[in-house]
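Researcher: Sequence recovery benchmark, item below. Answer with residues only.
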């Protein structure tokens, strides 16, 4: 692997109400939005940031989100399109542990795992209003045990192979691959910025801003733990993008997602 390449792994779509996408602003009505994971191929290894949702979990626990996911949109399926298998991923990073960002973690028992140091404790003991967000606990034996949900674990998932390295603040995963601490949506939320030798950087807001309109209007999703921190994080993301001349990519913005490169296409 030489120059950095970034692939977006299309993970299918979900539905929530407009008042959840745009907190206290709306308008109401079903919004179908994309879910995707980010694969960074770097000379230091393959980094996978987030792992999408698990269709069966959503149907069981949040069927009202009306999941649509083809075989190619599962994590193993999306990797297979690139000629890869889960074992080819060296490091899995979770921006946070909402179910639509960690549903495929279970396929990576061998990989090194990284998240903010507060996210696993939060998944073990979420606030009452966070229970559905942190409902897929298959990513961590510790969290599943804490919540009495060990039935969610794939056979073979143990504490030893689902342990995370906890980080805090901004952290360089590798040269030019930076995690930006953007709390508010969740207690330990991370956004991601990737530098390239010959194109402008890409700043993935992840859930600090679901959509372009969210960032422009500083209107966060209704799912959050600290809305004041959430606004601060959005301002921080806007400033970073400006300072670095970065292209912004949003986590759950259908209109913009249609213009993003997916499948075998990549950014480099
Ligand atoms: Zn989230």
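Model:
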């Amino acid at each position: 692997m030489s120059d950095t390449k970034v692939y977006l792994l299309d993970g299918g779509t979900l539905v929530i109400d407009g008042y959840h996408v745009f907190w206290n602003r709306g308008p109401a009505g079903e919004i179908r939005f994309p879910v995707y994971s980010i694969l960074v191929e770097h000379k230091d290894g393959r980094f996978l940031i987030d792992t999408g949702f698990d269709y069966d979990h959503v149907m069981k626990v949040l069927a009202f989100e009306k999941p649509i996911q083809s075989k190619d949109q599962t994590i193993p399926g999306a990797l297979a399109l690139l000629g890869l298998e889960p074992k080819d991923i060296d490091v899995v990073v979770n921006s946070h542990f909402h179910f639509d960002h960690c549903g495929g973690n279970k396929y990576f028992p061998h990989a090194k795992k990284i998240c903010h140091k507060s996210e696993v404790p939060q998944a073990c003991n979420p606030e009452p209003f966070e229970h559905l967000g942190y409902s897929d606990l298959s990513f961590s034996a510790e969290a599943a045990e804490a919540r009495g949900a060990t039935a969610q674990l794939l056979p073979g998932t143990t504490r030893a192979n689902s342990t995370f390295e906890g980080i805090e603040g901004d952290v360089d995963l590798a040269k030019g691959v930076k995690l930006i601490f953007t709390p508010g949506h969740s207690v330990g939320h991370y956004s991601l910025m990737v530098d390239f030798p010959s194109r402008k950087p890409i700043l993935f807001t992840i859930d600090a801003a679901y959509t372009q309109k969210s960032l422009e209007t500083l209107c966060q999703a209704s799912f959050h733990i600290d809305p004041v921190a959430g606004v601060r994080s959005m301002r921080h993301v806007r400033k970073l993008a400006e300072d670095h001349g970065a292209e912004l990519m949003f986590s759950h913005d259908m209109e913009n997602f249609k213009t993003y490169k997916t499948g075998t296409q990549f950014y480099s």
